């Protein structure tokens, strides 16, 4: 049977995928609306500096997401069979390149991708039309773009909102709404992205709701203290937070370059990706290279833990004892404990809740659906009977996330690994 034994069944678009797409749109609109609301409040109150900072974050995030979306759209158009006559007919208005380019320039490309994914998903799920694999393809790209948008805008915005509350020693309704929206966006998008990655694995390796909950908790418990520590540091040494970010971001970009990432399809696109990875690493761990990840993860968490301790110690030394007296001791104790709890939840996830631990014993290794846990089949997505459309971007990240140094890539596209 040869390599055919190693090809898992395609993921089918389901009502859960449709719900995730709809929730993703509502989360995006809620987060965007809260940003506009907060920016308007700053402007009305005469806080033009914070208004400028917030608008700058919104513009920077939008531009980066639109650039990624446009790079990917250009790559997809060069694939065999990608034309208005194929299943790709709905993505950003088919082959009208000028219109697609204009939408991205107007910062509407990301929103159009959302609308396209929902329309295609509804057509496949509700009307039972063909194109399930293509609908899944669209959701994969959206999950990555939402993750980029989350760490380029939501995480910095949340840090800014916490900083403003600490500096003014006030918590207004609009700020609480913005913080809640940003926190929801971060937590949801991290889990959504991981579930999207999991859909590239054989069906029995999919992440359960319980596993997703633990994954959500350890990410939230690691990211939240990081954001709080940055905001606390900025509240006492606001002039140095920019230098802190630039230094760490530059180091992280060099580390991404040193790992020789290969995610985009051009040199310019690859450097855009590395710049974005450096920004993500400023807030959270994100694997970008093949090979054993345990060592790199240990280095990263050790570095971030040390940096967090320095940030908290600096805040404690320079804080106003009178103004911070109601919450200072609670924060200095709870934040390190929360981060430690996040690391424990991460260990718990890999020890007790990882999807590979719940897979049934394989009785017949010749069955395509009974692959060893270490076998990752890259799912080529058919948009024509004789054409295969491969989501290279998600395939690349599946390799990075689930392939250790003992793994190897076979000639048929299957990855053998024992560390999933």
Automatic annotation (TrEMBL):
<comment type="similarity">
    <text>Belongs to the XK family.</text>
</comment>
<feature type="transmembrane region" description="Helical">
    <location>
        <begin position="271"/>
        <end position="289"/>
    </location>
</feature>
<feature type="transmembrane region" description="Helical">
    <location>
        <begin position="12"/>
        <end position="30"/>
    </location>
</feature>
<keyword id="KW-1133">Transmembrane helix</keyword>
<dbReference type="GO" id="GO:1902742">
    <property type="term" value="P:apoptotic process involved in development"/>
</dbReference>
<keyword id="KW-0812">Transmembrane</keyword>
<feature type="transmembrane region" description="Helical">
    <location>
        <begin position="240"/>
        <end position="259"/>
    </location>
</feature>
<keyword id="KW-0053">Apoptosis</keyword>
<dbReference type="InterPro" id="IPR050895">
    <property type="entry name" value="XK-related_scramblase"/>
</dbReference>
<keyword id="KW-0472">Membrane</keyword>
<feature type="transmembrane region" description="Helical">
    <location>
        <begin position="298"/>
        <end position="316"/>
    </location>
</feature>
<feature type="transmembrane region" description="Helical">
    <location>
        <begin position="328"/>
        <end position="349"/>
    </location>
</feature>
<protein>
    <recommendedName>
        <fullName>XK-related protein</fullName>
    </recommendedName>
</protein>
<dbReference type="GO" id="GO:0043652">
    <property type="term" value="P:engulfment of apoptotic cell"/>
</dbReference>
<dbReference type="GO" id="GO:0005886">
    <property type="term" value="C:plasma membrane"/>
</dbReference>
<feature type="transmembrane region" description="Helical">
    <location>
        <begin position="50"/>
        <end position="73"/>
    </location>
</feature>
<feature type="transmembrane region" description="Helical">
    <location>
        <begin position="174"/>
        <end position="193"/>
    </location>
</feature>
<dbReference type="Pfam" id="PF09815">
    <property type="entry name" value="XK-related"/>
</dbReference>
<keyword id="KW-1003">Cell membrane</keyword>
<feature type="transmembrane region" description="Helical">
    <location>
        <begin position="213"/>
        <end position="233"/>
    </location>
</feature>
<dbReference type="InterPro" id="IPR018629">
    <property type="entry name" value="XK-rel"/>
</dbReference>
<dbReference type="GO" id="GO:0070782">
    <property type="term" value="P:phosphatidylserine exposure on apoptotic cell surface"/>
</dbReference>
């Amino acid at each position: 049977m040869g390599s055919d034994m190693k090809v898992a069944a395609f993921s089918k678009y389901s009502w859960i995928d449709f719900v995730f797409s709809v929730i993703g749109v509502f989360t995006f609109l809620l987060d965007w609306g809260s940003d506009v609301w907060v920016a308007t409040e700053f402007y009305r109150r005469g806080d033009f500096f914070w208004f400028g900072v917030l608008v700058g974050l919104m513009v920077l995030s939008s531009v980066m997401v639109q650039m990624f979306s446009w790079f990917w759209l250009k790559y997809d158009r060069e694939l065999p069979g990608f034309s208005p006559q194929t299943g790709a007919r709905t993505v950003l208005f088919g082959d009208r390149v000028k219109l697609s380019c204009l939408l991205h320039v107007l910062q509407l490309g990301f929103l159009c991708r959302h609308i396209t994914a929902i329309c295609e998903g509804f057509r496949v799920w509700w009307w039972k039309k063909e194109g399930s694999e293509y609908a899944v393809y669209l959701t994969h790209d959206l999950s990555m773009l939402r993750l980029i948008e989350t760490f380029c805008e939501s995480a910095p915005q949340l840090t800014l909102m916490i900083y403003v509350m600490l500096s003014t020693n006030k918590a207004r309704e609009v700020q609480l709404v913005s913080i809640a929206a940003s926190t929801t966006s971060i937590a949801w998008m991290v889990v959504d992205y991981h579930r999207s990655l999991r859909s590239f694995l054989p069906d029995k390796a999919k992440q359960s709701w319980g596993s997703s909950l633990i994954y959500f908790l350890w990410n939230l418990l690691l990211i939240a203290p990081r954001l709080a520590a940055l905001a606390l540091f900025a509240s006492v040494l606001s002039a140095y937070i920019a230098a802190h970010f630039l230094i760490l971001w530059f180091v992280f970009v060099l580390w991404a370059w040193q790992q020789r990432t290969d995610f985009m399809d051009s040199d310019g696109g690859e450097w855009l990706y590395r710049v974005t990875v450096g920004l993500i690493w400023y807030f959270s761990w994100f694997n970008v290279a093949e090979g054993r990840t345990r060592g790199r993860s240990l280095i990263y968490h050790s570095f971030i833990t040390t940096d967090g301790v320095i940030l908290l110690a600096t805040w404690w030394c320079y804080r106003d004892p009178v103004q911070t007296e109601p919450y200072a001791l609670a924060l200095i104790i709870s934040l390190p404990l929360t981060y430690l709890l996040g690391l424990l939840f991460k260990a718990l996830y890999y020890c007790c809740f990882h999807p590979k631990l719940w897979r049934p014993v394989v009785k017949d290794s010749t069955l395509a659906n009974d692959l060893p846990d270490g076998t990752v089949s890259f799912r080529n997505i058919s948009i024509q009977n004789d054409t295969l459309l491969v989501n290279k971007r998600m395939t690349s990240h599946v390799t990075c996330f689930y392939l250790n140094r003992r793994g190897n890539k076979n000639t048929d596209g299957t990855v053998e690994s024992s560390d999933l």
